[in-house]
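To: structure desk
From: M.T.
Subject: fold request, one chain
Message: Could you run this one when you get a chance? Sequence is below, nothing fancy, just the single chain.
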Amino acid sequence: MPVLARARGVTMCFGALTAVDSVDLAVRGGEVVGLLGANGAGKTTLIRLVLGLLRPTRGEVLLFGAPPSMGTRRRVGYVPQTLGLYDDMTVLENWTFTAAAFGTERGPLPPGIGEVQDELVGTLPLGVQRRVAFAVAFSHRPELLVLDEPTSGVGPLSRARLWQDIRDSAEHGTGVLVTTHNMEEAEQCDRLVVLVDGRVAADGTVADVIGGRRVVEVRCDDWRSAFEVLDAEGLIVQVQGDALRVPGTVGQVEEMLARHGVGGAVSTVPANLEEAFVAVASGTARR
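Reply: Done. Structure tokens follow.
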């Protein structure tokens, strides 16, 4: 598939702050690329650079093989964190305005949106607003979708619907660049790029990001006491069913539990994506 968006050695400085530092990125047609990172990691800045809304301090950004321009921007659908809708306009007015801005013929509103076409966007529930924003972004049949935290603040059903739209678009050849904090959503991406302090700390499939990382699993009858001990020791503890999962080594965890008179079966197991992300973002066990 062709490369739709590419960043080569892109750096963005705001005064003394380097928000994006020497980042390489490529998004191809038909793939969903997920941008992961803590708040302030540089995800939104990188998206704005890819769209041409910011000019990099150093490096090169290409959209469809050329520098970002009005022409290349017309081939992109964009949903920012703020949704990009006009709250004081109706759904139909937003739809009509977008068609005019992109120079496309206004088609019918998609199912599920038509019944609220005369409602002011600002009066709609957030989940419905996000569906409208998606519909508007899809309306001119973009070749590239850029989505910044598209499911933030919506319920599980709306989230599932939005991700079904994302996957359907990719299956029809659209490239997708999406930021998310949700690890379940990240697992639906074909490739992940993890940003830490503006730099790429990991890049690849979910399996690539996890790599050979392992965590310690604790199984015991009194798992609540084990949780309190490990949490008090400063470990990040995950509860999965009747088991606890923590970073570290078997010896360290056994020593912590024994010191507080808590017994249990301690072993190592493969890390999941959330555990690998925490390790990468914290700079521990980095590959």
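Reply (cont.): The two ends are 28 Å apart (CA to CA). Let me know if you need anything else for the meeting.
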